[in-house]
Write a structure and sequence with these properties.
The protein is mostly helical and about 150 residues long. The chain has one domain. Helix content is about 95%, strand content about 0%. It contains two helices and no strands. Helix 1 runs antiparallel to helix 2. The longest helix has about 90 residues.
């Protein structure tokens, strides 16, 4: 009887240890799954924020492009006015008013050209930001699909 009692105790210990190992394995797997779900959620949130920012930047790009076109148009007009004032001054070199007008037109043309360069640079920088954001979104979406595929298995 003692022998069978020891045997049944041993069986119970083996069963209990096996059950513990299975339970720990399931807990570890559940923890890994929870961590993976957390990563998936974080990446999803980052993608959504990036997409929102992308739409804002694209709207801003439309405005910057319009500003750039306006500035370029104004610079061309100022350059033409400067040229006309210079031509009028060349007809009468000693005329003070014409000289002053030509100088003012020249200064205005410089300012407008500078504004046009700045507007062009701002639009270009915004296009670069949009490009980088699109690359980041693509990268995050690829990582997200990879994690989702792993979670499905």
């Amino acid at each position: 009887m003692t022998f069978t009692f020891k045997r049944s105790v041993m069986k119970n210990k083996v069963l209990l240890i096996s059950f513990g190992v299975v339970l720990l394995g399931n807990l570890t797997q559940a923890q890994q799954s929870a961590a993976q779900q957390t990563r998936i959620l974080n990446i999803s949130q980052r993608v959504e924020k990036s997409k929102l920012k992308l739409s804002q930047l694209e709207n801003e790009l439309v405005d910057k492009t319009n500003e750039k076109e306006k500035a370029v148009k104004q610079a061309v007009e100022s350059a033409n006015e400067n040229r006309d004032a210079a031509v009028k001054l060349s007809d009468d070199v000693q005329h003070r008013k014409k000289a002053k007008r030509a100088e003012k037109r020249s200064d205005q043309a410089k300012r407008d050209a500078k504004k046009a360069r700045r507007a062009t640079q701002n639009a270009k920088e915004l296009e670069n930001d949009i490009s980088q954001l699109k690359k980041q979104i693509t990268k995050d979406e690829a990582a997200l699909s990879k994690l989702n595929a792993q979670a499905a298995n």
